[in-house]
Amino acid sequence: MSEFPGFPPGFVFGAATASYQIEGAAYEDGRGPSIWDTYSHTPGLVVNGDTGDVACDHYHRYPEDVALLRDLGVASYRFSIAWPRVVPDGTGPVNPKGLDFYSRLVDELLAAGIEPAATLYHWDLPQALEDRGGWRVRETAERFAEYTAVVAEHLGDRVPRWITLNEPWCSAFLGYSVGRHAPGAREGRGALAAAHHLLVGHGLAVRALRSAGVREVGITLNLDHHLPAAASDEDRQAVVRADTLHNLVWTEPILAGRYPDTEEDTWGELITAQDFRRDGDLELISQPLDFLGVNYYRPIVVADAPHRELDPALRVATDNRYAEAPMPGVRHTAMGWPVAPDTFTDLLVELKEQYGDALPPVHITENGSSENDEVSPDGAVHDTDRVTYLRDHLTALRAAIDAGVDVRGYYVWSLLDNFEWAFGYDKRFGIVRVDYDTQERTPKDSYHWYRRMIAAQRS
């Protein structure tokens, strides 16, 4: 196998981060509290009691991080904007210092020859809006559109690529059903309402971005490739339910303008009362996009299983009569995720087969691995497993392109080690190591490999 898979001319290589995971400065310059501030400060919810109060201190060190990006040779940097830094209460007065931070970041990127790609929502909902119902209520989608208009007016002339939402599955289901993400709720109907209102918020944000005249608009979904644990009808039906929960709940409204025809079998009584849906919502949600962002890390093996909660009134939205099963015979990352790069190809090819011309050009907006990194006596981080993971997944991505999928770009996750949500600082995805005591940045072997690969595309 070649060390560096080749890509078509003009293919965009980038790196990605997210605001709460790296910025820190949680109480500076007028930033309001987010649901992740509340969640991480609640005892017992995050490993080691970690919070994003300081994180990677990117708020103060962004010039150093942009210099790392410049040396890496990426054409684009995907970052997210913290809603509570710009509109501290989610609605009402705008915080000029928050807008100014992102303006300085964008200018620093442009001066380095790097194209900014901005994500408007990477999970840090203003706490004041959660106190009024959060994504369970339609008002949050409306406030999101207002915030989008403010940011687009301020940055739209310099930021060409915009992402409305990052991984709404995590916001809706990890946040409102499983409770492993902020705001930590365990609900059934509330999670389904949150999923729908996130889609409505996406549609309203698309309108606001189009009105601002930005160049490219898309959304990022964490689509999963599901495999049956056994060749049985029961496990194959479990795959359908898993696919509905993880993928179809988003792709069907966005790309096909319809709700999944498998939703009743997946959610049963939870979906029968859909008073949160309104006439015209599907037209709003399914507006044409310039690209679809796809985040991909690993496949999920699925086995049929009974309901965990027998009372339908008490079920969470993720109780869909299936369970994740082990995937033997493959390496697993530090997250416990199986490494099977061929499933990356399969996911993208099947997505193209399913939606055809309705599928816009694709950008891989996240892909990477958490590994048990160690600092060697020479001061370096020789993360061989991460290098292999990246090489094999980029090779699988090239196979999808060869199979006819229009993929335009790839963003490695992540530039920096960072606050990994409920795992705190216990998991490291970065190609640059961060010493959280000193904030020293150390490029890992994976950083140097990715830099060489990008350079090889230009030779």
UniProtKB/TrEMBL annotation:
The keyword Hydrolase applies. Gene3D superfamilies: Glycosidases (3.20.20.80). Keywords: Carbohydrate metabolism, Cellulose degradation, Glycosidase, Hydrolase, Polysaccharide degradation. InterPro entries: GH (IPR017853), GH_1_N_CS (IPR033132), Glyco_hydro_1 (IPR001360), Glyco_hydro_1_beta-glucosidase (IPR017736). GO terms for molecular function: beta-glucosidase activity. Belongs to the glycosyl hydrolase 1 family. PANTHER family: GLYCOSYL HYDROLASE, LP05116P. This is Beta-glucosidase. It comes from Streptomyces edwardsiae.
